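TL;DR need structure tokens for one chain.
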Amino acid sequence: MGNNVLLEARDLAFAYPSGTENVFSGASFRLHRGDKTALLGDNGSGKTTLLRLIAGELEPSAGELALRGAPVFLLRQEDSAAGAGS
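>> reply
TL;DR here they are.
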């Protein structure tokens, strides 16, 4: 990942625990500083799920999602642990 890469996904996949199929799989992209991006898709195609992954609310089934080079899910866990005693 380069210095100007803000968000990067590599072969990202997600399936809800109760589901038998992935909501999406094989998603890869890079968002660079200054990029303008739109997230488009049909109803139920995984747009909100992707945003929840980026926010750290969900953990990917497969692949990597990094914000400024650090794994998003791990960042969220560390933030939660840091605020646990306050």
